[in-house]
Task: inverse folding
């Protein structure tokens, strides 16, 4: 189970911390929470949604905490993309940076939709927001990223 969901949880945490060491700590804490939780999951999707929600909450709590360290951008996450040349990597990094500059309510949705390949319906269930709100926030996030890249 750990190996099946580790990359998803790592990706979510990294988008908040932007630091691989802090991300590894969060991932460890999240899986410890999973193994100690007294909840029966109805399906693999239920478990996945629980892990996503806990990953987002733990990451947000970390970023807000007094223990938060100076954040340093790393190319570790970008190296997982399918860029083929230097220009593509630069563009990918620009988009990645723009996603991190988005307000949290937009960033969460972009991460779940594009980086975790979840459907709008799944994101709606995970975040407890209507599908129409998800679509509108996704549209606003795309516009903000597009405007930011044109600068």
Result:
């Amino acid at each position: 189970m750990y190996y099946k969901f580790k990359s998803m949880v790592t990706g979510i945490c990294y988008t908040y911390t932007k630091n691989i060491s802090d991300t590894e700590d969060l991932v460890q804490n999240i899986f410890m929470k999973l193994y100690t939780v007294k909840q029966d999951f109805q399906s693999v999707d239920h478990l996945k949604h629980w892990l996503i929600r806990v990953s987002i909450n733990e990451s947000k709590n970390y970023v807000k905490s007094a223990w938060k360290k100076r954040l340093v951008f790393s190319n570790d996450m970008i190296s997982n993309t399918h860029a083929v040349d230097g220009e593509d990597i630069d563009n990918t990094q620009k988009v990645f940076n723009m996603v991190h500059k988005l307000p949290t309510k937009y960033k969460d949705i972009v991460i779940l939709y594009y980086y975790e390949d979840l459907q709008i319906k799944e994101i709606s269930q995970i975040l407890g927001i209507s599908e129409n709100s998800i679509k509108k926030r996704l549209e606003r996030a795309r516009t903000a990223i597009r405007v930011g890249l044109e600068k």
Summary: Residues 69-85 have pLDDT under 50 and may be disordered. The longest helix spans residues 44-64.
